[in-house]
Amino acid sequence: MEYDINTILFAFGLTLFAGLSTGIGSAIAFFAKRTNTKFLSISLGFSAGVMIYVSFVEIMVKARDELVAELGIQGGYWTTAAAFFGGILIIALIDKLIPSYENPHEIRMVEDMESESQQKNHKLMRMGLFTALAIAIHNFPEGLATFTAALTEPSLGIAIAVAIAIHNIPEGIAVSVPVYYATGDKRKAFRLSFLSGLAEPVGALVGFLILMPFMSPVVFGILFAAVAGIMVFISLDELLPSAREYGEHHLSIYGLITGMVVMAISLLLFI
Questions:
Q1: Alpha carbons 259 and 57: distance in angstroms, whole number
Q2: Is 83 within 8 Å of 225 (Cβ atoms)?
Q3: What are phi and psi of 254, to 5 degrees?
Q4: Which tens digit of pLDDT belongs to each residue from 130-149?
């Protein structure tokens, strides 16, 4: 499967945008006196809605069509299901290997961290560094997911990139706040938070270099179905629980439904 250089650069640019949005979270941490929990709750719910809807309605269907065309109905359906749950297994294992204390999806807010500023500096610094490492590990498969989608269908890639960018904002807060309280250096905290998001475009680049020489309709179908599994797991395990912890339960659900509606309309407009 051949892709022109403009399509590849566009896909990579979207992945870079999604990854570096951790810097937005870092900026919010430094310029906001309190965490806007309602905004984050609705936004994270919205992101989950976009990712769940597009995974089941668009990505899984495209993956299945490719695999059925190559492997037949029975082989295509079974391979699609196996790849979908394989993607879930990969991201679940990554999540399991990261201790909960350093997990970037453990909710942290600006005002809560102020009470922790009396802790020993090295402990806070360790928290920030390990959170940055955890984010980098999580962002690697997310980068591959964004890049693959954008490479296949640019409009789909834009939707996924925006959803993942929203999902990365709280992660930027989780890195920058403890580092700032440990060092008193906003630039250093912002820089570390910003750089942790670079794992996303790195994931895209590594995936591209490794997989492109072997890319075929079957490999593409398996990869796309795995991407759907990764995004569904992220939504159910990270985004929705985070959205509920940040605000009211109903706000996260309203955000979820809004994300699905927006995604549905955007897909219909490109028919």
A1: 13
A2: yes
A3: -60, -40
A4: 666 666 676 777 787 788 87
